[in-house]
Design brief:
heterodimer, A: about 100 residues, alpha+beta, two-stranded antiparallel sheet, two-stranded antiparallel ribbon, B: about 425 residues, alpha/beta, eight-stranded mixed beta sheet, 18 strands, globular
Chain lengths: ~100, ~425
């Protein structure tokens, strides 16, 4: 196997620059997520930031967010996600987009 | 602070709007939430720049190009088959060119620089957090700067596919998963001479490959295009169907890179950057109202991406609509009427140009291209048919082409009357 090997997800994310701000620009209300039947964010998020918890909720980490908006587009639960952009100058920085 | 125009977003639409407005003598501030223009942006391959001919004569001599696309391929894949229609022309390798590949951090920065040269003020690292309104009219934006509010006679919302400003103004729905696609892309590093050799190009010649049938049946497609010493590979898929399929997007990119038709191009390459961005692909019928009192909406915020199968364009529509927004702002301010009625010249201008004419003409294309049969059945049908045509079955004599078509259609679950109906629909769509 040479060259065809798929890189590990952590290595993939390590190629991207993030200027992490102190404020979480996306907040997940795990209470709402517990009643969500699809939890579509878990697979759809291209940065893989939504992790199901043992009690049926969702744990979210904003630090490596692409700010793309996929999560709120696929979110089922009214009010589960509060979504905003990071403060000016912070968040993802693409060099080869 | 008060300006004639506040432009939100220094992508191609915003910078084009700021450029046109500043050239018309207006005071313009251009807000960018990233640390530099392009830092939040990603795209899927080619910038078609001819819309800049009149605005920035000789733009091709200074645009930060990676490669000029002289080879355009359309590919149909199944798990084990590949059919390619491959076109190349040296005409596209010389002025005025046809399209180039670029990095948005470079291209968007270059264009924002043009707006600044024309007199616009660029404020980076600044988020427009909301609209300032008085009596229903938009009169500026709130920002996350300490001195916060920026008043303007006209606000241009060029804040991209998620346009919070157009949503706040009630022009865009909060979510529109049915008309939104997700693009994920890997930029892969390879020595320049290796790229030249593998893709059969030299100098600044480049290749753009658009691919159908590589997304596990999730409506969408894939792409491969060359930069100088990197190759960009990615997929674009319906967010709605991606979510329903419970497939992780990067797996689709991995599938594509591992396909026997693609793997030889990217063998041994190292991932230099992974990016993701949404795309508004609803076309003409999903576009919002383009203006309100004191507000113009342009570029991705206005849904101006053309996802019409063989044509996949966006940056050129952002440029075209942005320039029109800048001109409309100047016209409305000169006439002393920045109300919805006074800004109606924006839509009129767009209707007379490629921006709305192409979208209107191809309004049925997104639905057809993303339909179940085009996505899930026809790639297999076409590949099977071509394989059967070229498989020499001696000593059995050649079967007729129609028989092969029937067999391939049946094998792929397509009824001939559906094929005929879709053929007619395609004829109507692309006429």
């Amino acid at each position: 196997m040479t060259g065809y090997d798929e890189i590990a997800f952590d290595d993939r994310m390590a190629t991207v620059e993030f200027r992490v701000g102190e404020r979480a620009h996306i907040v997940v209300d795990s209470e709402v997520c517990r009643s969500c039947t699809t939890q579509a964010c878990v697979t759809a998020c291209p940065a893989n930031l939504f992790a199901p918890t043992s009690d049926g909720g969702i744990l979210f980490n904003y630090e490596q967010c692409f700010e793309c908006g996929t999560c709120y587009q696929v979110c089922n639960g009214e009010g589960a996600l509060s979504w905003s952009y990071p403060d000016g100058g912070q968040g993802v920085v693409f060099r080869h987009g | 602070m008060s300006y004639d125009v506040v432009v939100v977003g220094a992508g191609p639409a915003g910078s084009a709007a700021a450029l046109a407005a500043a050239r018309a003598g207006l005071s313009v501030v251009l807000l960018e939430r990233g640390p530099f223009p392009g830092s939040k942006n990603a795209y899927g391959g080619v910038v078609y720049g001819r819309v800049l001919d009149d605005v920035l004569p000789g733009w091709w001599d200074e645009v930060p190009v990676q490669r000029w696309v002289t080879r355009r391929s359309t590919m149909i894949l199944t798990g084990h088959q590949a059919l390619t229609v491959d076109f190349r022309t040296s005409d596209w390798g010389q002025a005025p060119y046809n399209g180039c590949t670029t990095f948005r951090a470079d291209f968007d920065g270059w264009l924002a620089g043009k707006a600044v040269e024309a007199g616009a003020q660029l404020l980076t690292s600044t988020v427009a957090t909301g609209l300032l309104r008085e009596g229903g009219r938009v009169v500026g934006v709130r920002t996350d700067r300490p001195d916060g509010d920026l008043r303007a006679r006209i606000v241009v919302a060029a804040d991209g596919v998620n346009s919070f400003l157009a949503k706040e103004a009630g022009l865009l729905p909060k979510t529109d998963a049915a008309h939104t696609t997700l693009g994920v892309k890997e930029v892969l590093a390879l020595p320049r001479e290796v790229i030249d050799e593998r893709f059969g190009v030299r100098g600044l010649e480049g290749v753009d490959v658009e691919i159908l049938g590589c997304t596990r049946g999730i409506p969408g497609g894939g792409f491969v295009y060359t930069n100088r010493d990197t190759v960009s590979v990615g997929v674009v898929v319906s967010v709605q169907h991606l979510a329903a399929a419970k497939v992780r997007p990067e797996e689709l990119v991995a599938d594509l890179k591992a396909h026997p038709a693609i793997a030889p191009w990217v063998r041994g390459a190292e991932v230099k950057e992974y990016t993701a961005h949404l795309i508004p692909e609803g076309g003409y019928d999903a576009m919002p109202e383009l203006h309100a009192d004191g507000l113009l909406v342009t570029g991705d915020a206005a849904g101006m991406c053309l996802a019409a199968g063989i044509w996949l364009e966006g940056v050129n529509f952002a440029l075209g609509s942005g320039l029109a927004a800048g001109r409309a702002a100047a016209q409305a301010i000169a006439a002393g009427d920045v109300s919805r009625a006074g800004l109606a010249c924006y839509r009129k201008d767009l209707e007379s140009s490629f921006v709305l004419q192409d979208h209107k003409r191809l309004r049925r294309a997104p639905g057809l291209v993303l339909s179940e049969r085009v996505q899930q059945r026809y790639p297999g049908l076409i590949a099977d048919l071509v394989q059967d045509l070229f498989t020499v079955t001696n000593p059995t004599p050649k079967p007729g082409a129609l028989r092969l078509l029937r067999a391939a259609a049946k094998r792929n679950g397509v009824k001939l009357r559906h094929l005929a109906a879709d053929g007619l629909a395609a004829g109507r769509t692309f006429r």
